[in-house]
């Protein structure tokens, strides 16, 4: 990546990021740069640091065509440089020992790992399916937002997509049952502006110390 293209001002990033649905199909992003953006995204927090996010990066034109009808024929799937299939691993606890061993190498006290990992390996495998799915979706949302901001910092545009058939995605891409489809995210260069940001005010979405101040 040309580091001169990276936007360092966080406040500019959060204001200029838009959901873009029209992309310049002539623009590609190298595998190395996509890996760099994903590497910045996965610095996001996750439940118990189990990092359940998994990415299938779709760049091949034939695979884009395969994904296109699954995403209800949203044209950005074809025209964007890449579309990420973001999955959440409901069995990410299998990596607990590996993750916390790396944490010990990075300075975590061994006794913290020895105390924490057994509790994780007792708690997470015994979660019901719906709770485990909820954890994967929350963590997926965290990494998705960080990916979109990282992409913007690299000079690219994105759009998150919940409009797709999860059932067809699982079947077409042979996704194992312990992975939960979270969303699709297209990334590339905008070919046209997005809609202006329109948000409810802080006072309309915020209450202090009780729920009673929120408007219906």
UniProtKB/TrEMBL annotation:
What does the record list as coiled-coil region(s)?
Answer: none
What's the source species' lineage? Bacteria, Bacillati, Bacillota, Bacilli, Bacillales
Keyword match rRNA processing = no
Domain of life, source organism = Bacteria
> Which family is this protein grouped under?
Belongs to the nitroreductase family.
Instruction: Tell me if Ribonucleoprotein is a UniProt keyword of this record.
Output: no
Which key words are in the record? Oxidoreductase
- InterPro entries attached here? Nitroreductase (IPR029479), Nitroreductase-like (IPR000415)
Descriptive protein name: Nitroreductase
Q: Where are the transmembrane segments?
A: none
Q: Which residues form the Nitroreductase domain?
A: 14-189
